[in-house]
Design goal:
The chain has 86 residues and is mainly α. It has one domain. It is built from three helices and two strands; from the N terminus they run ααββα. Bound molecules: iron/sulfur cluster (SF4).
């Protein structure tokens, strides 16, 4: 991996981390929190992911997923499945 590729990968990681932190903070303050029914529906879809990307609680980035920790993502109302499944 070249230096530019490493910098780009680090930048993308930091951007995703930042979005995750902001999303969790909003959910913690109940500003953007999904309902329990919505979170459970999302969980059911992910656990039988039509794209086969559910892997150890994450959406498998190496296969084109978002790389998110899904238990947190399900609880943030404005989050979306990168493949449009929910
Ligand atoms: S977020 Fe979408 S693509 Fe990722 S595991 Fe869940 S259903 Fe699959």
């Amino acid at each position: 991996m070249t230096d530019d590729e490493e910098r780009e990968a680090l930048g993308e990681t930091m951007r995703r981390f930042g979005r995750g932190v902001i999303g969790l903070a909003k959910a913690s303050f109940r500003l953007d929190r999904s309902t329990e029914t919505q979170a459970e529906a999302r969980m059911a879809i992910c656990k039988t992911c039509p794209s086969g990307l559910y892997k150890n609680g994450r959406c498998d980035r190496s296969q084109g997923g978002c790389g998110c920790f899904l238990s947190a993502k399900w609880r943030i109302a404005s989050e979306r499945c990168p493949k449009g499944h929910w």
